[in-house]
Design a protein that fits this description.
This protein is mainly alpha-helical. It has helices at residues 2-39, 45-58, 63-66, 74-86, 90-114, 119-134, 144-147, 149-164, 170-184, 191-205, 212-240, 244-259, 265-274, 282-299, 313-330, 335-354, 359-376, 382-385, 388-394, 398-404, 412-424, 442-446, 457-463, 468-476, 490-494; strands spanning 432-434, 482-486, 509-513, 516-520. The protein has 25 helices and 4 strands. It is globular.
C-alpha cells in the first residue's frame, strides 16, 4: 500500500508543474518567433546619432569638442564598446539591445522570485515583459532610457540586500552608488527614481529596531561616495581630453532652446494614456498599487521587526514612482521615455498580485490583457509575422528594413541607392553633409564622419531657434562635397515655405533617389585627391 502511494506521488505533482511548463513553452515560442524580426528591424535616428559619436570615441576624437553634445557620454561609450566587440552594423546594435533588455528582464524576474513569487509566476512575468518590448516600434528600441534601466535595477537589488542586513555596509552602499552613477552617465534624470528608492528604503529601515539611524547613515555615505566617484570619472575624462570647458560652454549655450521645446501638459497627459497603447493602460493599475504599497510603510504603526523579515516591496514601488515622475514630468514625452516605465509597471502589478491569496484571478486578468495587447500591436500583424523565414535567409538588409519598420522613417532601399552613388564618388570623412533627419543613417553606412559639429543639421536649426543664423553660417562654410536632403523631412514641412528656396536646396542637384536629393556643395566642385572610398 505504501509503495503504491509513493509511486502515485510523481503523477499527482503534474497538475502543480504544468503552469510553469506552459510558461516556458510560451516564452520559447515568443522568442523564437519575434527575435528574428526584432534583429532585422532598422535603427532610429537616435541610435545612429549615438553610433556616430561612438565611432568618434573609438577613433580617439574629443567627443564634446567635435560635436554639439549636451547629454553625458554614457550611451556613446556603451555603443563604442558594442562597436569594438560586435561590430558597427545595425544587427550588432540590436543584438546588444536584446542582451541589455534580456538582462533587465532577468533582474526583474529575479526580484519577483526573491519576494516570494512562484517559479511559474516568474516565467509568466518574463513572457509579459518580453512580449511588450519585442512588439514595440523601433522608436522605443536601442534607446538610452532602456539601457540606463539595467544599472538602476541592479542597484535596486543591492538596495534590497542593504535593507535586509543587520548592519549597513559602507562598501556595498558605494557599489550601489557606482551603479546609480553609471545610470546618470546615460541620462541624469535617473537621479529622481534613485532618490525615491532611497527614501522608500529609509522608511523600511526605520522599522528594524535600535541603531537604524547609524545603519542608514553608513549606507547613505557609501551611496554618495559611489555616485560622486562615477561623476568624478566623467569630469576627469573631460579634463583629460581637454573638453571640460567646451562641454559646459555648449550646455550653457544651447540648453535653454532645447528645453523650450518640451511638451505641454495636455500633450503629456495624452501620451500617458495613449503612448505605447494599450500597454500604457497598465500605468493606471500600477500607480495606485505602488501608492498602496508605500502608504502603510509611511503611515502605519511603527512595529519593530528584524531587518531580514522586512518585505522589500516598497523599494520597487519607489523606483516605479520615481521613474514615472521623471518620464512624465521632466522629459520631453516621447514614447521611448515610457518604455522603462511600462517594464516596471508590469513588474509592479505582478509583485502586488503575488502577495495576494486571490492573485490567481488577477493573474488571469493580466494574462488576458497581455494576450490582447500583443494581438493589437502592428508588430504582430500576420503579413509581418510571415516575414520570419525571410529574416533568417536575408538578414538585416535595406529591403527587410522597409518591410519591417513600424515608425515613419527613412525609405531604406532609396537611401541605399544614395549610398551607392556616394561610394562611386569615393567620399571620405567630412565629405557628406546629411542635412535632414532621415538621411543620418548614411554616415554609419558609409563609415564616414560628418563635416559639422551638428550631427542633425535641420533638427538643430529647428530646435536651437535662437542660434539659427550662426548654425546656418557654419553649415554653409563646412568642407562637405555633397549635401543629402529628404523631401519628406518633418522639420522641413514645419519650416516656412521660403525655406525650400534657400540653401542647400539652391545648390546644383547631382543625384536623386525617390525622396532623397543629393546636391554638390560649392567646395565640392571636384573630388579631393586622396579621398578614401570609406565604407566600401
Amino acid at each position: 500500500m505504501v509503495a503504491r502511494l509513493s509511486a502515485a506521488a510523481p503523477r499527482s505533482a503534474w497538475p502543480d508543474c504544468w503552469p510553469e511548463l506552459a510558461a516556458w513553452l510560451a516564452l520559447a515560442s515568443l522568442l523564437l518567433w519575434l527575435v528574428p524580426l526584432f534583429l532585422c528591424m532598422p535603427l532610429t535616428t537616435d541610435a545612429c546619432f549615438y553610433d556616430i559619436c561612438a565611432r568618434d570615441v573609438l577613433r580617439g576624437g574629443a567627443l564634446e569638442k567635435d560635436f554639439v553634445f549636451l547629454v553625458p557620454p554614457g550611451m556613446a561609450w556603451a555603443l563604442a564598446a558594442v562597436r569594438a566587440t560586435l561590430g558597427g552594423s545595425s544587427f550588432a546594435a540590436r543584438l546588444a539591445d536584446l542582451l541589455v533588455v534580456g538582462a533587465v528582464v532577468a533582474l526583474l524576474v529575479r526580484w519577483l522570485r526573491d519576494t516570494g513569487m512562484t517559479r511559474g509566476g516568474c516565467v509568466w512575468s518574463a513572457v509579459l515583459l518580453c512580449a511588450f518590448y519585442l512588439t514595440t516600434s523601433e522608436g522605443c528600441q536601442v534607446q538610452p532610457d532602456t539601457w540606463m534601466l539595467l544599472p538602476a535595477v541592479a542597484a535596486l537589488h543591492l538596495r534590497r540586500r542593504q535593507v535586509a542586513r543587520s548592519h549597513g555596509w559602507f562598501a556595498w552602499g558605494a557599489a550601489e552608488g557606482l551603479l546609480w552613477g553609471a545610470a546618470c552617465l546615460i541620462k541624469p534624470y535617473v537621479v529622481v527614481p534613485g532618490l525615491l528608492t532611497w527614501l522608500a528604503s529609509a522608511l523600511v529601515v526605520r522599522r528594524s529596531g535600535p541603531g537604524w539611524r547609524a545603519r542608514l547613515a553608513r549606507d547613505t555615505g557609501g551611496l554618495l561616495v559611489g555616485g560622486l566617484l562615477m561623476g568624478a570619472i566623467w569630469q576627469g575624462s573631460l579634463l583629460a581630453h581637454g573638453t571640460f570647458a567646451d562641454y559646459w560652454h555648449t550646455v550653457a549655450l544651447y540648453r535653454g532652446d532645447y528645453y523650450s521645446r518640451t511638451a505641454n501638459w495636455a500633450q503629456r497627459g495624452q501620451l500617458m494614456l495613449w503612448g505605447v497603447f494599450p500597454w500604457s493602460l497598465l500605468r493606471l493599475a500600477a500607480l495606485p498599487l505602488a501608492l498602496l504599497t508605500l502608504v502603510p510603510t509611511l503611515t502605519g504603526p511603527l512595529r519593530v521587526a528584524p531587518a531580514s523579515a522586512i518585505r522589500p516591496q516598497p523599494l520597487l514601488a519607489g523606483l516605479y514612482l520615481g521613474w514615472l515622475a521623471q518620464a512624465a514630468l521632466i522629459q520631453g514625452q516621447y514614447a521611448y521615455h515610457m518604455t522603462p516605465v511600462i517594464l516596471l509597471a508590469i513588474t509592479q502589478v505582478a509583485s502586488w498580485l503575488a502577495c495576494r491569496p486571490w492573485g490567481g484571478r488577477g493573474w488571469l486578468t493580466l494574462g488576458i490583457f497581455g494576450l490582447a495587447a500583443v494581438a493589437y500591436q502592428p508588430a504582430c500583424r500576420p503579413h509581418r509575422l510571415a516575414l520570419w523565414a525571410e529574416c533568417w535567409h536575408e538578414g538585416s538588409t535595406p529591403t527587410m528594413h522597409d518591410r519591417l519598420h513600424l515608425d515613419a522613417g527613412p525609405t531604406w532601399v532609396e537611401l541605399d541607392h544614395v549610398a551607392d552613388f556616394l561610394r562611386e564618388q569615393r567620399v571620405g570623412d567630412r565629405d557628406v553633409l546629411c542635412y535632414d533627419t532621415a538621411t543620418i543613417p548614411l554616415q554609419p553606412a558609409l563609415g564616414i564622419q560628418p563635416p559639422t559639429r551638428y550631427i542633425l543639421p535641420s533638427g538643430c536649426l529647428y530646435v536651437y531657434s535662437s542660434h539659427q543664423a550662426s548654425i546656418r553660417q557654419e553649415l554653409m562654410a563646412g568642407p562637405q562635397r555633397f549635401i543629402v536632403t529628404d523631401a519628406d523631412d518633418l522639420v522641413l514641412k514645419l519650416s516656412p515655405p521660403q525655406a525650400r528656396c534657400s540653401w542647400p536646396y539652391t545648390e546644383p542637384e547631382v543625384f536623386c533617389a525617390g525622396r532623397y536629393h543629393v546636391y554638390r556643395a560649392p567646395s565640392g566642385a571636384a573630388p579631393r585627391r586622396g579621398a578614401g572610398a570609406a565604407g566600401r
